[in-house]
Amino acid sequence: MNESFEGIVLFKRPYRDHDALVKIFTEKWGTKMFFVKGLNKPNHPLMSYTLPLTKNQYIGTINQQGLSFLKEGQSLSMYRHLQMDVDFQAYVAYIVQLVDAATADNEPNPTNYQLLEHVLDKLNQQLAPQLITTYVELFLLPQFGTHINFDQCLYCDEAKGPFDLSLRQQGLLCSKHYHMDEFRLRIHPNAIYIVQQLQTHALNHIQSVNLNSNILSELRRLMDEIYKEFVGLRLKSKSYLDQLEKIHDEANLLKDMRQKNKNVDKQKPN
Ligand SMILES: [Zn+2]
Protein backbone atom coordinates (compact mmCIF):
# COMPACT_ATOMS: atom_id res chain seq x y z
CA MET A 1 0.00 0.00 0.00
CA ASN A 2 1.29 3.47 -0.86
CA GLU A 3 1.88 5.84 2.03
CA SER A 4 2.56 9.56 2.03
CA PHE A 5 5.26 10.70 4.43
CA GLU A 6 7.90 13.31 5.20
CA GLY A 7 11.58 12.49 5.68
CA ILE A 8 15.16 13.75 5.82
CA VAL A 9 17.78 11.88 3.77
CA LEU A 10 20.65 10.73 6.01
CA PHE A 11 22.84 9.06 3.38
CA LYS A 12 22.79 6.98 0.22
CA ARG A 13 25.11 4.33 -1.06
CA PRO A 14 25.37 2.46 -4.34
CA TYR A 15 23.99 -1.04 -4.42
CA ARG A 16 24.71 -3.52 -7.21
CA ASP A 17 25.27 -1.91 -10.66
CA HIS A 18 22.81 0.96 -10.87
CA ASP A 19 20.69 0.68 -7.75
CA ALA A 20 21.06 2.45 -4.43
CA LEU A 21 20.18 2.18 -0.76
CA VAL A 22 18.96 5.41 0.77
CA LYS A 23 18.59 5.88 4.50
CA ILE A 24 15.81 8.30 5.35
CA PHE A 25 14.73 9.55 8.76
CA THR A 26 10.96 9.49 8.31
CA GLU A 27 8.79 11.58 10.56
CA LYS A 28 6.27 8.76 11.10
CA TRP A 29 8.36 5.58 11.24
CA GLY A 30 11.82 6.64 12.31
CA THR A 31 14.98 5.78 10.35
CA LYS A 32 14.47 3.34 7.48
CA MET A 33 16.46 1.98 4.56
CA PHE A 34 14.94 2.38 1.09
CA PHE A 35 15.85 0.49 -2.04
CA VAL A 36 15.75 2.60 -5.20
CA LYS A 37 16.11 0.74 -8.46
CA GLY A 38 18.31 2.38 -11.11
CA LEU A 39 18.99 5.47 -8.98
CA ASN A 40 22.53 5.75 -10.28
CA LYS A 41 21.40 5.93 -13.90
CA PRO A 42 21.27 9.48 -15.33
CA ASN A 43 18.01 11.46 -15.03
CA HIS A 44 16.40 9.20 -12.45
CA PRO A 45 13.16 10.93 -11.33
CA LEU A 46 14.04 10.43 -7.64
CA MET A 47 17.59 11.80 -7.98
CA SER A 48 17.05 15.16 -6.26
CA TYR A 49 14.81 13.66 -3.54
CA THR A 50 17.48 11.22 -2.45
CA LEU A 51 20.29 13.74 -1.99
CA PRO A 52 21.69 13.54 1.55
CA LEU A 53 20.57 16.37 3.83
CA THR A 54 17.41 17.31 2.00
CA LYS A 55 13.89 17.20 3.43
CA ASN A 56 11.20 15.81 1.14
CA GLN A 57 7.64 14.60 0.95
CA TYR A 58 7.39 11.08 -0.42
CA ILE A 59 5.00 8.47 -1.62
CA GLY A 60 6.22 4.93 -1.14
CA THR A 61 5.77 1.50 0.37
CA ILE A 62 6.78 1.07 4.00
CA ASN A 63 7.84 -2.30 5.38
CA GLN A 64 8.21 -2.67 9.12
CA GLN A 65 11.41 -4.70 8.73
CA GLY A 66 13.80 -4.94 5.79
CA LEU A 67 13.83 -2.54 2.87
CA SER A 68 11.13 -0.04 1.97
CA PHE A 69 10.47 1.54 -1.44
CA LEU A 70 10.07 5.05 -2.86
CA LYS A 71 7.73 5.94 -5.69
CA GLU A 72 7.55 9.73 -5.83
CA GLY A 73 9.11 12.73 -4.15
CA GLN A 74 8.54 16.43 -3.66
CA SER A 75 11.13 18.80 -2.21
CA LEU A 76 10.39 20.49 1.14
CA SER A 77 13.83 21.93 1.83
CA MET A 78 17.17 21.68 0.06
CA TYR A 79 19.07 23.48 2.89
CA ARG A 80 20.95 25.39 0.20
CA HIS A 81 23.55 27.00 2.45
CA LEU A 82 24.51 23.59 3.79
CA GLN A 83 24.92 22.17 0.32
CA MET A 84 27.34 24.95 -0.61
CA ASP A 85 29.53 25.31 2.47
CA VAL A 86 32.21 22.66 2.99
CA ASP A 87 32.80 23.63 6.64
CA PHE A 88 29.13 23.38 7.53
CA GLN A 89 28.87 20.08 5.68
CA ALA A 90 31.59 18.64 7.92
CA TYR A 91 29.62 19.56 11.06
CA VAL A 92 26.36 18.34 9.58
CA ALA A 93 27.90 15.02 8.50
CA TYR A 94 29.01 14.40 12.10
CA ILE A 95 25.65 15.51 13.56
CA VAL A 96 23.75 13.26 11.17
CA GLN A 97 25.92 10.23 12.00
CA LEU A 98 25.53 10.94 15.70
CA VAL A 99 21.73 11.23 15.49
CA ASP A 100 21.65 8.05 13.38
CA ALA A 101 23.80 6.22 15.95
CA ALA A 102 21.49 7.26 18.79
CA THR A 103 18.31 6.32 16.92
CA ALA A 104 17.09 2.72 16.68
CA ASP A 105 16.04 1.82 13.11
CA ASN A 106 12.39 1.16 12.23
CA GLU A 107 11.03 2.76 15.40
CA PRO A 108 9.17 6.08 15.42
CA ASN A 109 11.28 8.74 17.11
CA PRO A 110 9.64 12.18 16.83
CA THR A 111 12.04 13.64 19.41
CA ASN A 112 15.15 12.95 17.36
CA TYR A 113 13.39 13.79 14.10
CA GLN A 114 12.48 17.23 15.44
CA LEU A 115 16.00 17.68 16.79
CA LEU A 116 17.53 16.98 13.38
CA GLU A 117 14.99 19.15 11.56
CA HIS A 118 15.54 22.05 13.97
CA VAL A 119 19.32 21.77 13.85
CA LEU A 120 19.42 21.64 10.03
CA ASP A 121 17.26 24.79 9.91
CA LYS A 122 19.59 26.58 12.31
CA LEU A 123 22.72 25.49 10.47
CA ASN A 124 21.16 26.55 7.20
CA GLN A 125 20.78 30.02 8.77
CA GLN A 126 24.54 29.78 9.36
CA LEU A 127 24.32 29.84 13.13
CA ALA A 128 27.58 28.87 14.93
CA PRO A 129 28.11 25.22 13.93
CA GLN A 130 30.40 24.45 16.89
CA LEU A 131 27.66 25.44 19.35
CA ILE A 132 24.99 23.52 17.49
CA THR A 133 27.20 20.43 17.44
CA THR A 134 27.70 20.71 21.21
CA TYR A 135 23.97 21.22 21.64
CA VAL A 136 23.27 17.97 19.77
CA GLU A 137 25.95 16.07 21.71
CA LEU A 138 24.44 17.25 25.02
CA PHE A 139 20.92 16.44 23.88
CA LEU A 140 21.87 12.88 22.86
CA LEU A 141 24.09 12.10 25.84
CA PRO A 142 21.24 10.63 27.99
CA GLN A 143 20.19 8.51 24.98
CA PHE A 144 23.68 6.99 25.03
CA GLY A 145 23.09 6.23 28.71
CA THR A 146 25.11 9.02 30.30
CA HIS A 147 23.68 11.55 32.73
CA ILE A 148 25.92 14.37 33.87
CA ASN A 149 24.60 17.00 36.23
CA PHE A 150 25.80 20.34 34.89
CA ASP A 151 23.67 22.36 37.34
CA GLN A 152 25.73 22.44 40.51
CA CYS A 153 28.78 21.21 42.41
CA LEU A 154 28.63 17.53 43.34
CA TYR A 155 29.72 18.26 46.90
CA CYS A 156 28.13 21.50 48.06
CA ASP A 157 25.33 22.30 45.61
CA GLU A 158 27.09 25.53 44.69
CA ALA A 159 25.29 26.70 41.56
CA LYS A 160 27.59 29.53 40.57
CA GLY A 161 30.87 28.89 38.77
CA PRO A 162 33.71 28.71 38.10
CA PHE A 163 33.36 24.96 37.72
CA ASP A 164 35.52 22.12 36.51
CA LEU A 165 34.38 18.64 35.45
CA SER A 166 35.13 15.34 37.10
CA LEU A 167 34.69 12.51 34.58
CA ARG A 168 35.14 9.91 37.30
CA GLN A 169 32.32 11.33 39.37
CA GLN A 170 30.24 12.45 36.40
CA GLY A 171 29.65 15.94 37.65
CA LEU A 172 30.85 19.45 38.38
CA LEU A 173 33.30 20.58 41.02
CA CYS A 174 33.24 24.15 42.32
CA SER A 175 36.58 25.82 43.01
CA LYS A 176 36.35 24.86 46.73
CA HIS A 177 36.09 21.22 45.72
CA TYR A 178 38.57 21.02 42.85
CA HIS A 179 40.77 18.92 45.14
CA MET A 180 38.15 16.13 45.27
CA ASP A 181 39.41 14.83 41.93
CA GLU A 182 43.06 15.16 41.06
CA PHE A 183 42.22 14.05 37.50
CA ARG A 184 39.60 16.75 36.97
CA LEU A 185 39.61 17.96 33.36
CA ARG A 186 41.11 21.40 34.11
CA ILE A 187 38.82 22.81 31.49
CA HIS A 188 38.28 26.54 31.03
CA PRO A 189 35.26 27.46 33.25
CA ASN A 190 33.70 29.40 30.37
CA ALA A 191 33.38 26.15 28.39
CA ILE A 192 31.29 24.70 31.24
CA TYR A 193 29.28 27.92 31.39
CA ILE A 194 28.42 27.53 27.69
CA VAL A 195 27.32 23.94 28.23
CA GLN A 196 25.00 25.15 31.00
CA GLN A 197 23.58 27.80 28.68
CA LEU A 198 23.05 25.26 25.89
CA GLN A 199 21.21 22.95 28.29
CA THR A 200 18.83 25.59 29.58
CA HIS A 201 18.16 27.78 26.54
CA ALA A 202 16.73 27.08 23.14
CA LEU A 203 19.13 27.35 20.22
CA ASN A 204 17.58 30.70 19.28
CA HIS A 205 19.23 32.34 22.29
CA ILE A 206 22.65 31.08 21.41
CA GLN A 207 23.02 33.32 18.37
CA SER A 208 24.16 36.26 20.47
CA VAL A 209 26.99 34.38 22.20
CA ASN A 210 30.28 35.58 20.82
CA LEU A 211 33.11 33.17 21.44
CA ASN A 212 36.81 33.31 20.90
CA SER A 213 38.61 30.38 19.34
CA ASN A 214 40.27 29.39 22.62
CA ILE A 215 36.92 28.85 24.36
CA LEU A 216 35.59 26.98 21.35
CA SER A 217 38.50 24.56 21.39
CA GLU A 218 38.04 24.09 25.15
CA LEU A 219 34.39 23.34 24.49
CA ARG A 220 35.48 20.81 21.85
CA ARG A 221 37.92 19.21 24.29
CA LEU A 222 35.22 19.01 26.98
CA MET A 223 32.71 17.23 24.73
CA ASP A 224 35.40 14.97 23.22
CA GLU A 225 36.52 13.85 26.68
CA ILE A 226 32.93 13.10 27.71
CA TYR A 227 32.15 11.19 24.52
CA LYS A 228 35.44 9.29 24.61
CA GLU A 229 34.89 8.26 28.22
CA PHE A 230 31.18 7.40 28.17
CA VAL A 231 29.98 6.90 24.60
CA GLY A 232 33.01 5.50 22.75
CA LEU A 233 31.73 5.93 19.19
CA ARG A 234 34.17 5.99 16.31
CA LEU A 235 32.60 7.98 13.52
CA LYS A 236 34.44 8.67 10.28
CA SER A 237 32.78 12.07 10.00
CA LYS A 238 34.21 12.96 13.42
CA SER A 239 37.83 12.38 12.39
CA TYR A 240 37.24 14.50 9.30
CA LEU A 241 35.76 17.28 11.45
CA ASP A 242 38.71 17.03 13.87
CA GLN A 243 41.14 17.53 10.98
CA LEU A 244 39.18 20.51 9.72
CA GLU A 245 39.07 22.11 13.18
CA LYS A 246 42.80 21.57 13.58
CA ILE A 247 43.43 23.46 10.36
CA HIS A 248 41.19 26.29 11.58
CA ASP A 249 42.93 26.35 14.98
CA GLU A 250 46.32 26.64 13.30
CA ALA A 251 45.05 29.42 11.04
CA ASN A 252 43.66 31.28 14.07
CA LEU A 253 46.92 30.86 15.95
CA LEU A 254 48.80 32.31 13.00
CA LYS A 255 46.36 35.22 12.83
CA ASP A 256 46.80 35.90 16.58
CA MET A 257 50.57 35.80 16.23
CA ARG A 258 50.50 38.22 13.30
CA GLN A 259 48.22 40.56 15.26
CA LYS A 260 50.59 40.42 18.26
CA ASN A 261 53.60 41.16 16.06
CA LYS A 262 51.75 44.10 14.55
CA ASN A 263 51.01 45.47 18.02
CA VAL A 264 54.64 45.04 19.04
CA ASP A 265 55.73 46.89 15.89
CA LYS A 266 53.37 49.70 16.78
CA GLN A 267 54.80 49.99 20.27
CA LYS A 268 58.38 50.22 19.03
CA PRO A 269 59.78 53.74 19.35
CA ASN A 270 60.61 55.34 16.01
ZN1 LIG B 1 31.56 22.55 45.90
Reconstruct the topology from this structure:
Layout lengths: L1 E14 L3 E8 L3 E7 L18 E7 L6 E10 L2 H5 L1 H17 L7 H15 L4 H12 L8 E5 L9 E4 L4 E4 L14 H12 L2 H4 L6 H19 L4 H32 L3
Parallel strand pairs: 3-5, 6-8
Antiparallel strand pairs: 1-2, 1-4, 2-3, 4-5, 7-8
Helix pairs in contact: 2-3, 2-4, 2-8, 4-7, 5-7
The protein binds zinc ion (ZN).
Describe the structure.
This protein is of the alpha+beta class. It has 3 domains: 126 residues, OB fold (Dihydrolipoamide Acetyltransferase, E2P); 98 residues, no CATH class; 37 residues. The strands form 2 sheets. It has a 5-stranded mixed beta barrel with strand order 1-2-3-5-4. It starts with a strand and ends with a helix. The model has no long low-confidence stretch (mean pLDDT 91). The site of zinc ion (ZN) has 7 residues, from loops.
